[in-house]
Amino acid sequence: MEKISYQLIIFVFYFFLTIGFPGTASCADERPAWTLHPAKLAIGQVGLFSISDVPATRMTATFLNRPVYFHPASGSLAALLPVDISTPPGKYPLTIEYEHIHHGTKKVITIQVEVHPYEFPVEELTLPEKMVTFPEEILKRIQDEKEAVDAVFEETNMSLLWNGGFIKPVEGDIVGLFGSRRILNGEERSRHMGVDIRGKEGTPIRCANSGRVALASDFYLLGSTVILNHGQGVFTIYCHLSKAAVKEGQQVAKGESLGEIGATGRATGPHLHWGAVICGARVDPLSLIEATAMVAEMRNSKAN
Ligand SMILES: [Zn+2]
User: How far is the CA of 176 from the centre of ligand 1 (A)?
Assistant: First the structure.
């Protein structure tokens, strides 16, 4: 009889230790505070998720079957949440797993993130037929080049190189929107996977953030192209350059010139085609500027 009471006391003690004593204030251990900016994500957009008060070691997270990488940002942890352009609207879980810093207990937090539809614009363009219909050998070259570009985006585990907010690589009007459905010579052909920024031939193009040159090459459709790897799966793409001024493997700093505006590849006039890919998700690069502007503020406020 005495033995049973002893076991009961142990059980009750363990029970309260595990779930917390009733009536106590919310325990920071169990209730991390988080924010998402913007609060509602749309297809083809990237948001900034931040979380604080997580007593964690070995934290890993996934969203839409992609890894989510956290980095310290002013007392909290921040991560980019990209939504690929092909994602159907709906609610998707952001799953965060960690081990408790003190007692090693495995924890899982699941946050439902709403992904909203977005009506992408339709752009009708009339181009010379040779810019739309290609002979067999050119089609093969275009396909090979697409595969070479896609292979670059597979390196998603390089350490963080970007810091603070991404910047627009050239000043100038946006003349082609991300995600627009392109009707070329009356036929719907492809989605526009970047933004087109108008600029004069020879205008310097700035690196949107610090990183490493993952690719600098000439392509049939994209023309002279540079891809920067900013680490943690974040890439920015620059096309139709008159000439690239950087070499593969080179480290670059935010704001540094990587080349000049041109009209190489399939381009009707000088402009920069600028794209962004995050862990394989194709997103609007302008939303990357918006999402990371918050990171800059957080880091700056810490420095002030
Ligand atoms: Zn473009």
Answer: 6
Paired tokens of 189? 């052909």
Predicted pLDDT of residue 296: 58
**For residue 17, is pLDDT > 50?**
no
Question: What is the 3 state secondary structure string of 101-162?
Answer: CCCCCEEEEEEEEEEECCCCCEEEECCCHHHCCCCHHHHHHHHHHHHHHHHHCCCCCCCCCC
Name which of 145, 125, 151, 273 is nearest 220 in CA terms: 145
Q: Quote the percentage of the chain above a pLDDT of 90.
A: 66
Q: Hey, what are 113's tokens?
A: 């993130």
**Residue 286 CB burial class (10 angstroms; 0-12, 13-18, ≥19):** buried
State the distance from the centre of ligand 1 to the C-alpha of 271, rounded, in angstroms: 8
How far, in Å, is the centroid of ligand 1 from the Cα of 273?
4
Contact 64, 102 (CB under 8 A): no
Q: What is the pLDDT of residues 240-278, one digit of tens each?
A: 999 999 999 999 999 999 999 999 999 989 999 999 999
Q: Write phi, then psi, for 210 (nearest 5 degrees).
A: -70, 150
